[in-house]
Amino acid sequence: MSDAYRQRLQAFVSERITPNVAAWEQLGAYPATLNREAGAAGLLGLGHDHRQLPDDPRAVAVLIEELTRSGAQGITMGLGSHFVSLKAVQATGHPIVHDLVPAVLDGRQSIALAITERQAGSDLRALECRATRQADGYRLNGHKAFICNATRADWLLMVGHCEDGLALFLVEGSAAGIRHTPRQALGWRCLPLADLELVDVPALRLTGKGGVGRLLQASLQQERLNLAVMAITSADMALQAAIDWCKSRQVGGKALFDKSVIRQRLAEHYAQLTVSRQFVDTCVTRQAEGTLDPHQVAIAKNSAVQTLETLARDAVQLHGAHGCVEPSLVERIHRDARLLAIGGGTHEIMLEIIARHL
Fold it and tell me: Considering the chain, what is the average pLDDT of its residues?
C-alpha cells in the first residue's frame, strides 16, 4: 500500500469531515452523500480496483485509523465497516457478489450488518428471527436491534432460522415490511442507529445448510480488529490532547506539565498505549499473513479498549470542566469509548474466547 492512499484519506478527512463533526453530532447523522463522495474518491475500496473485494488488512487498518482521526468514531463505523459485511457476502459465493461488491466500494450503494437482537446480542444460538420459504422466495419475521445505519443502508445482511437451520440473508433496505425505530446511543452520535421490526420481509438466501457460524467468524474477526484500531487511535488522540492541555494550562503561575505527578501520569499512559498499539499492529500483520487467531484478536480488542477507557477518563479529568462540555474532543472520545467495549463482543465474551485457547 502506498503512502498516497493515506495522504488522500487524510486530505478527505481534513476537508470534508473534521470541520463538520460537531454539527453532525448535533444533528444525529452525517450526510448520506458522504458515503458516495468517499467511494467516488476511491477511499472505500482502499485505493484498489472496485471490481472485487481487496484483501489488504494493512490498508483497512489505515482506513479505520484515518477516519477515526476525524474526531468521531461514528464516522469510522459508518464509512469503514463495510468490509465486515462484504467479507461474509463474498464467502457465500452467491452471484450477487459480482454486482454488490463494486457498488458498495465505489459508494453507489451501502450495506449494514443487521444480526443483533435484543434478547441475544450477536449470539447466533439465541437468535429468534425466522425465515419461511414461499413460492417467490424467503420471508423474514422478527426483530433486529441496535443496527448502525439501518435507516438508510441500501442492503441489510441478516441471519435467521429457516427449515434446515440458520442461514445468511440479504435484504433490501427499502423492502416492504421493515419498520424502523430510531435509537439514540451514549456515543457515536453522528451515526444513525435503529431497531428493526420485520414482517414478511422479502429476503435473498445466500447460504445453504450449515456453516453460518464459521462463515461469520472471519467477519467478526475483522470487526474486532477494526474496533481495536479505533480504540488505539482514539487513545492516542486523547493522550495528545491531554499533553497539549497540561502544557498550556497554568495553575499557580506554572503549567500543569511542570508538576512531576502530572508528567508521570501522562508517561504512564504513554507507556501503556505503546504496548497496546504494538500488539494491535502485530495482529494486523498476522492477519495480512493469514496467521491471526481469534484469541489474539480478543486480546488486542480488550487491551486497546481498556487503554482507551483509562486514558479517556484521565484526559477529561485533567481538562476539568473544559473536558466535560461539548464540543470538546476528549468529551466525545470519552463517550465513544464505552461503545467500543460492547461492540463486536463485550469484554467478557473476549475473555471467553481467550479462555478457550488456554
Answer: 94
Question: What pLDDT score was predicted for residue 173?
Answer: 96
Q: Comparing C-alpha atoms, which of 112, 110, 106 is closest to residue 37?
A: 106
Query: In CATH terms, is domain 111-210 a member of 3.40.50.700?
Result: no
In sequence order, the 6+-apart residues with CB closer than 8 A to the CB of 15 are none
Distance (Å, rounded) from C-alpha 213 to C-alpha 159? Answer: 10
Where helices occur in the chain by DSSP H, the ranges are 3-12, 21-27, 33-40, 57-68, 73-80, 82-92, 97-105, 212-248, 260-289, 294-319, 329-340, 347-357
Q: CATH 1.10.540.10 in the chain: give the residue spans.
A: 3-105
Q: Which CATH class is domain 3-105?
A: mainly alpha
What cell does 132 get?
419461511
Architecture of domain 213-357: Up-down Bundle (1.20)
Residues of the chain with CATH 2.40.110.10: 111-210
Integer CA distances (angstroms), 225 to 73, 75, 232, 318, 347, in order:
14, 17, 11, 29, 14
Q: Is the pLDDT of residue 122 over 70?
A: no
Closest CA to 34 of 1, 67, 69, 83: 67
How far apart are alpha carbons 92 and 314 in whole angstroms? 45
In this prediction, residues 253-273 reach a mean pLDDT of 97
Cα dihedral sign for 81, 83, 86, 88? negative
Q: Cα separation of 341 and 19, whole Å?
A: 27
Neighbours of 346 (CB within 10 A): 16
pTM: 0.95
